[in-house]
Amino acid sequence: MHPKIPKRREPRYETAIVAHVFTNRWNPLISKKVVVLDLSWKGFKLEFIAKQNINFKTGKRLSLRLPIDQFNISNVNYLKIEIVVKWCDKDLKR
User: Fold this and answer.
1) Rounded mean pLDDT of 5-17?
2) Cα–chain-centroid distance for residue 60?
């Protein structure tokens, strides 16, 4: 029997960045506003601002457009990240 190895807990960084999620990669005009609640090396948590019900299935691929021009890191205005849904809470819109 193997000894129990504790899981490594990565630090989570709380944020309040407003970003856009594109649900259809072929139509860049349809987007939904989200707030990035926290970040870690394993992922991040998004909260949708939309009034509609949000119901994404596990494994759905989305595109996240994250503005970084406010941080004055470089001359790049935003990062475009392809993301995969791990879980979705319809009640909390997360």
Assistant:
1) 74
2) 12
Q: Checking DSSP bridges between strand 13-22 and strand 31-40, what pairing results, if any?
A: antiparallel
Taking a C-beta distance cutoff of 8 angstroms, is the pair 42, 10 a contact? yes
How far lies 84's CA from each of 45, 71, 77, 79, 88, in Å? 12, 25, 23, 16, 11
The tens digit of pLDDT for each residue in 32-79 reads: 888 888 877 778 888 888 777 777 888 888 888 888 877 777 778 888
